């Protein structure tokens, strides 16, 4: 299968000429979720299901913008979010086609609540 | 390094200090702080009495409900994450019920395939794996590491930083590191605001001279991610894990935020690994009484659970805490093995300087160097010590030659290669000019040609003129405000005529689209091939298997710049010939009868092909001094060449037998000399001046004098051989071998000695 960037541009078309002419955008150098899922399969086949899960979460996160990505990370740090706020993020992630990331956030919320690591509220 | 260590007299001894102890106290080793074991404080390498017994229970739904003595209801965040994601429940019971020694032996045994061990380790709890690996002796750790590391081909990472955050110097030093063979370059900042500029400069410098070196900028997690997202770095590593909940949370993260970070990096096609290391928890005062190795085992299990592809540990920031306790250095090496057992990339410490003692810091590194690792250093300080903004590494820019020679000594691939001065000048200049051009093209800064020239020549930032620090800050601010990224860099390089570098930087961008370097232990070789667990798996199964140094690579490692051929070593001899004196042969030497006569026998090549002693003294001068000493004693000197042997004892004895007095002197071209008497066995003699490099003109004169006194039947005071602390044989033996070979060439077995006449 031909490897494409997030933008749809074929890997072979990411050339210096295209870059020099200003034909490339940031999305032309972003990995495609399909590529990440394929890499996940490779990791799974080679006996690392955890790396595979990580790459599948990554595939989901290709749909998020940089700012959003940084915001979710920030929200997951200790004492930043209440349980309800984390649940809201999980719902948003689910809606954005990121169910395994949503599950990660819910797990963080449950453990955080149990260990007193959430913002009260 | 020069300050005097204190002498604490910790044993309370009140007597006057012994010279032997005072001398030991002055050794650099005694600047190292060494701690008494203290289980309660976590100051224990392996097996604290508070470490849990390994245990695991799995319920009917396949959930881990008991982990190392802790029931699910009392799991801390680390237990929770490991229990939820990190244990292969299908093999957990089998792995944890294997006796410790049985599993330990499977780990070491070359005949047991790596996959078998990886499978079992996947089910082992942190306490189990810690206990099993603790049973391994150092040489068994090495065997296990040779087998268990993920990638077949070893590699190595460099630190590239400087005191000024000078972008030209960063680029030149990045290119320097790549020229030496480093495949990952890690930079950081003394001034946080400079980070974007540093990342940019190192990215450009890293692609000068060869393609494919990975770069990162180690800073606060969020900013590091941001630079990565824009393509100014190509991997990340400063994602720290800790083995207790308290310290983990103090680090302002949870396992879930870190796991999210792993996925965030991967979502932009960026390689990343996590960082941990024994002793960090004790250093933060929250080790919960657990051993460093058990806590590290938790970190590594967590790394695997999170889906990180690799771990940097075994000699990072808290390495000296581990190093301070008994077994600490073994613990650091064992940390690397933990990572390999979990089938993750090992970026193997040797990062922080662990000791003031050169012996001790080297002893920390060598076992791993010999065994091989995915990355032998997680930061060899490729710059000089003072420029390393991580603090000095265990090996630094000053140690590059030592490291190259260590590789050569042992015939192991340490990942580096010798570089000529011409090559280094070329890549440093190219890198500095490329950054100068990009900063101009992008309107970031106007860096002068004079500064480029300074940077090329500089050993480090102290050799540079002062730099207005606002220049870097303003460049960094502009990079941030305009959100400049990899494509801007590619365009600027291309536009400024750095087409090759533009291609290579773009190739790093393409690599993150392809995603192959997200697999475990991936690096790029210089042809941009991915070497990883998938493409280059370690297949060590005992002698003759696994990574093999190719003949070409062996030659590359052998050809260090200090290596000399016999011809090179003899070059100065030719110069020394410059015709000041000659020894002319005057027929066969006959025994003399004059009791005042002393014979001076010279070796076959003296003043025929060899003209300088090993100390650099012209052989004619040595002879003149000997003759002058004899003359002062009123003796008659006669010169003969002993052609039949190169053995100094036989040369001296032959001369003694020809001498009317029965006293002879033997002199080899390399400068070794002795006084002999005709009735002694060949290997006995009256005086021997054996340390040729240290024999001075005055000593040759005294040799002549003493020989004269022996001839007169007196008993002279023997000249003492000078003492030295030099590794004198290491210094001179290469040249001695070359000189002896020439003596051997000139030797004519069976030929009688001949009379010589000295002419000017």
List keywords for this structure.
heterodimer, A: 121 residues, mainly alpha, Hypothetical Protein Yqey, Chain: A, domain1, 6 helices, 60% helix, 0% strand, elongated, B: 760 residues, alpha/beta, TIM Barrel, 29 helices, 43% helix
Structural class by SSE content of chain A: mainly alpha
The N- to C-terminal Cα distance of chain B equals 52 Å
In CATH, the homologous superfamily of the domain at 65-121 in chain A goes by the name Propanediol/glycerol dehydratase, small subunit
- Spatially, the strands of the biggest sheet of chain B line up as 14-20-16-15-17-18-19
Strand fraction of chain B: 5-15%
Which two chains form the greatest contact, residue counts included?
A: A-B, 58 and 67 residues
The rounded distance between the terminal residues' Cα atoms of chain A is 49 Å
Q: What count of helical segments of chain B does DSSP give? A: 29
Helix share, percent of chain A:
55-70%
The chain-level structural class of chain B is alpha/beta
CATH class of the domain at 65-121 in chain A: Mainly Alpha
Gyration radius from CA atoms of chain A, angstroms: 18 Å
CATH topology group of the domain at 149-233 and 350-556 in chain B: TIM Barrel
**Helix coverage percent of chain B:** 40-55%
The coarse overall form of chain B would be elongated
Strand content range of chain A: under 5%
**Tally of DSSP β-strands of chain B:** 20
Q: How many extended strands of chain A?
A: 0
Instruction: Catalogue the unreliable spans of chain A.
Output: none
CA-atom Rg of chain B in angstroms: 33 Å
Order of helices and strands of chain A: HHHHHH
């Amino acid at each position: 299968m031909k490897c494409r960037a997030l933008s749809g541009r074929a890997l072979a078309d990411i050339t210096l000429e295209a870059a020099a002419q200003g034909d490339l955008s940031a999305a032309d150098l972003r990995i495609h979720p399909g590529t990440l899922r394929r890499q996940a399969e490779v990791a799974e086949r080679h006996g690392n299901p955890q790396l595979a899960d990580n790459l599948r979460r990554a595939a989901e996160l290709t749909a998020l913008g940089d700012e959003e990505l940084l915001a979710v990370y920030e929200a997951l740090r200790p004492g930043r979010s209440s349980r309800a706020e984390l649940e809201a993020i999980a719902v948003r992630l689910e809606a954005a086609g990121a169910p395994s990331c949503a599950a990660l956030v819910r797990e963080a919320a449950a453990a955080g609540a149990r260990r007193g690591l959430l913002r009260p509220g | 390094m020069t300050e005097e260590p204190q002498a604490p007299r910790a044993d309370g001894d009140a007597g006057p200090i012994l010279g032997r102890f005072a001398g030991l106290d002055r050794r650099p080793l005694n600047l190292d702080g060494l701690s008494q074991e203290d289980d309660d404080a976590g100051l224990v390498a392996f097996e604290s009495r508070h470490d849990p017994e390994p245990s695991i229970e799995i319920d009917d739904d396949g959930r881990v409900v008991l982990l190392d003595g802790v029931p699910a209801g009392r799991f801390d965040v680390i237990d929770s994450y490991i229990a939820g994601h990190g244990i292969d429940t299908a093999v957990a019971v089998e792995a944890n019920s294997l006796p410790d020694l049985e599993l330990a032996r499977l780990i070491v045994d070359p005949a047991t395939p790596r996959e078998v061990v990886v499978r079992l380790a996947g089910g082992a709890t942190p306490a189990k794996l810690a206990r099993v690996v603790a049973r391994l002796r150092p040489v068994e750790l090495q065997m296990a590491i040779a087998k268990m590391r993920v990638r077949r081909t070893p590699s190595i990472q460099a630190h590239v930083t400087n005191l000024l955050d000078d972008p030209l110097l960063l680029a030149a030093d990045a290119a320097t590191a790549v020229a030496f063979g480093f495949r990952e370059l890690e930079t950081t900042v003394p001034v946080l605001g400079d980070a974007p500029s540093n990342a940019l400069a190192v990215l450009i410098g890293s692609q000068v001279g060869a393609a494919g070196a990975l770069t990162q900028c180690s800073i606060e997690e969020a900013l590091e991610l941001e630079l990565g997202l824009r393509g100014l770095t190509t991997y990340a590593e400063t994602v720290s894990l800790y083995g207790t909940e308290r310290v983990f949370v103090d680090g302002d993260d949870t396992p879930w935020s870190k796991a999210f970070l792993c996925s965030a990096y991967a979502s932009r096609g960026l390689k990343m690994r996590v960082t941990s290391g024994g002793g960090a928890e004790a250093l933060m005062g929250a080790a919960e009484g657990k051993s460093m190795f058990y806590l590290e085992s938790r970190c590594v299990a967590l790394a695997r659970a999170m889906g990180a592809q690799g771990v940097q540990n075994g000699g990072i920031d808290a390495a000296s805490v581990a190093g301070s306790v008994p077994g600490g250095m073994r613990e650091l090496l064992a940390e690397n093995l933990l990572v390999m057992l979990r089938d993750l990339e090992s970026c193997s410490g040797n990062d922080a300087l662990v000791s003031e003692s050169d012996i001790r810091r080297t002893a920390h590194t060598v076992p791993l160097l010999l065994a091989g690792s995915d990355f032998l250093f997680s930061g060899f300080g490729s710059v000089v010590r003072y420029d390393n903004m991580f603090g000095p590494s265990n090996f630094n820019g000053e140690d590059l030659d030592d490291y190259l020679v260590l590789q050569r000594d042992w015939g192991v691939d340490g990942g580096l290669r010798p570089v000529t001065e011409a090559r280094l000048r070329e890549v440093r200049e190219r890198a500095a000019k490329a950054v100068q051009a990009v900063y101009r093209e992008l309107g970031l800064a106007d860096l002068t040609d004079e500064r480029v020239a300074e940077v090329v020549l500089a050993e480090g930032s102290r050799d540079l003129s002062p730099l207005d620090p606002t220049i870097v800050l303003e460049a960094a601010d502009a990079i941030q405000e305009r959100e400049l990224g990899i494509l801007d860099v590619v365009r600027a390089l291309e536009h400024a005529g750095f087409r090759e570098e533009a291609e290579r930087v773009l190739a790093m961008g393409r690599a993150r689209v392809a995603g192959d370097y997200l697999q475990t232990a991936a690096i790029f070789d210089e042809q941009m091939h991915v070497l990883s667990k998938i493409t280059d798996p370690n297949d060590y199964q005992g002698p003759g298997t696994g990574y093999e140094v190719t003949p070409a690579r062996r030659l590359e490692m052998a050809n260090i710049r200090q290596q000399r051929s016999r011809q090179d070593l003899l070059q100065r001899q030719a110069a020394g010939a410059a015709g000041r004196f000659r020894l002319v042969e005057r027929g066969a030497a006959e025994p003399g009868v004059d009791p005042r006569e002393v014979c001076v026998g010279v070796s076959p090549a003296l003043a025929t092909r060899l003209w300088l002693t090993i100390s650099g003294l012209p052989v004619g001068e040595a002879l003149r001094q000997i003759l002058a000493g004899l003359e002062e004693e009123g003796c008659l000197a006669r010169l003969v060449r002993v052609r039949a042997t190169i053995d100094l004892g036989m040369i001296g004895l032959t001369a003694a037998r020809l001498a009317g007095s029965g006293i002879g002197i033997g002199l080899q071209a390399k400068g070794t000399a002795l006084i002999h008497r005709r009735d002694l066995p060949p290997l006995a003699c009256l005086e021997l001046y054996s340390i040729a490099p240290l024999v001075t003109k005055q000593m040759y004169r005294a040799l002549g004098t003493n020989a004269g006194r022996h001839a007169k039947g007196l008993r002279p005071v023997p000249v003492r051989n000078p003492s030295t602390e030099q590794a004198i044989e290491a210094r001179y033996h290469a040249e001695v071998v070359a000189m002896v070979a020439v003596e051997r060439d000139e030797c004519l077995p069976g030929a009688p000695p001949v009379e010589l006449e000295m002419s000017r």
